[in-house]
Amino acid sequence: xxSTSRRPKPSGRAGEIINAGAIAAMMSIGHRLGLFRVMAExxxxxxxxxxxxxxxxxxxxxxxxxxxxxxxVVTYDAGRAxxxxxxxxxxxxxxxxxxxxxxxYAQAVVLMGAVQERILGCFRSGAxxxxxxYPCFHQIMAEDSGQxxxxxxxxxxxxxxxxLTTRLERGIDVLDAGCGAGRALIAMAERYPNSGxxxxxxxxxxxxxxxxxxxxxxxSNVRFEQRDLTEFxxxxxxxxxxxxxxxxxxxxxxxxxxxxxxxxxxxxxxxxQDIGGSARLENNVPLPMAAFLYAIxxxxxxxxxxxxGGAGLGTMWGWETAQAFLQRAGFANVQRHVLPHDxxxxxxxxxxx
Length: 353
Ligand SMILES: C[S@@+](CC[C@H](N)C(=O)[O-])C[C@H]1O[C@@H](n2cnc3c(N)ncnc32)[C@H](O)[C@@H]1O
What we know:
The chain is α/β, with parallel strands linked by helices and 353 residues long.
């Protein structure tokens, strides 16, 4: 005889963790297929209506919906067989969410699984990985920085440095170091036609995507070049240098900051976003999503630095380390900001005096 009321629970927290991991993987699928966006726009709907609106197969969509219902993301009306994405859930799983679309980060959980076989080998050998080993990395990264950087560039980020937007309007030289798919630089190039913009990145596929996006917009004041920043040696060439989440996974972060300092003109500004964790593990226990950040570190940021023969400082190298490296590079006055729209990161504004 079956009894549902006395069904044993898989052991508490471990069961919850496995369940949450599965929901995250399926959240990534929902994000990639536009299911959350479709459901946010529909009234309570059947699986057939949701599948039709998303132009997907009903059977797969129904099974995905079952995960979302049992996972507490979607509500289900059994009498009508309709599904609803509550407004407050849609608010953090669709574009335009105040603290960013969290479904974007669910893709990183899937990426960790995609590279597991390689990472197992790295644990044994100590070897590193290459950016090309991660499918869709630059696409996910562009979505991530789209919401922490690009969406807030003109309202919050560039105004962090006194007088910077006026200088950009008049015309200055700007470098984005480790520009990835280049969306931040493109947004600035569109807004400030009198300024010149350069983006360097190690990865050819990211640079191609950036070049294509710039060409589609007909921009002539921005250029992107595939360049290994460990060989970067320009001197007093820029008035503004930016790096968005691009220092900690470098081969030699401290050395890169010295090179960026050298590449700035006197009075030039360095605007740096990096991960906001502390260098001390014990300080990170209460940090939101700290386990997620360490997991990204273990499966991506640390291995790609080690893969370049680098230090492998990891995602959680710590704001203290970043600040000390900036000061050692020569920046005398380093301002640190933790911004409400971007709680996982820290922002530094440094001026070459
Ligand atoms: C976490 S991603 C951030 C990308 C981009 N700034 C963004 O916010 O979307 C780090 C970037 O640093 C680049 N990078 C890592 N090592 C590099 C190196 N030695 N030279 C140039 N770029 C490098 C990677 O290719 C990657 O695009």
